[in-house]
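Postdoc handover notes: sequence design on the structure in folder B. Input tokens:
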């Protein structure tokens, strides 16, 4: 669930930087999630209101660090709008026994990677640990509730209800605050940056 932009309070905030999907794309994924939620077991599916593409997970950082990163991103040439599409269903490390179930992000992924590198530069200069793993742009759909493989029926249901989202243009990135709760996370935009 996304909330409106608040004034940032003191203390630490759990944060990440992301791209939100257009409403019609989020609605299409919500419909897909509703269908698989009814017919699958063993998966904790995301809430439609939390759907996004993560570019950088910053973790717990101070308000001062949020302000520094925001200042740097405001000054950075972020490279302009990015054409994105998404489709298919996969899993990390694989779909048979996934930790995470996702849909792949396609389109101008080279521009997306350049944007991610610029964000990484700004966050690391402000003390946020760098990530060295290969960037695999995706939209998280769910998480396996155990370390066991998915049941054959769950796999079948996931595979037969395919995903294909038409191309759109990402026009902004969002610095997001995340508060974990029993009903799932709540996301609040802290700052938006035009691409």
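Designed sequence:
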């Amino acid at each position: 669930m996304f909330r409106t932009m608040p004034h940032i309070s003191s203390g630490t905030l759990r944060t990440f930087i992301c791209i939100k999907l257009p409403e019609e794309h989020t609605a299409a994924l919500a419909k897909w999630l509703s269908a698989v939620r009814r017919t699958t077991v063993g998966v904790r599916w995301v809430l439609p209101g939390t759907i996004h593409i993560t570019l950088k997970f910053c973790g717990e950082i101070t308000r001062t660090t949020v302000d520094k990163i925001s200042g740097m991103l405001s000054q950075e040439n972020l490279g302009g709008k990015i054409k994105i599409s998404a489709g298919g269903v996969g899993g990390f490390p694989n779909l048979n026994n996934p930790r995470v179930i996702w849909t792949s992000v396609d389109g101008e992924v080279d521009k997306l990677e350049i944007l991610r590198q610029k964000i990484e530069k700004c966050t690391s200069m402000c003390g946020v640990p760098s990530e060295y793993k290969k960037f695999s742009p995706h939209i998280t759909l769910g998480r396996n509730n155990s370390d066991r493989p998915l049941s054959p029926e769950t796999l079948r249901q996931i595979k037969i209800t395919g995903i294909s989202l038409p191309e759109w243009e990402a026009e902004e990135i969002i610095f997001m605050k995340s508060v974990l709760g029993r009903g799932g996370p709540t996301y609040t935009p802290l700052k938006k940056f035009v691409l």
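Context for whoever picks this up: The chain has four helices and nine strands. Don't rerun without checking with the PI first.
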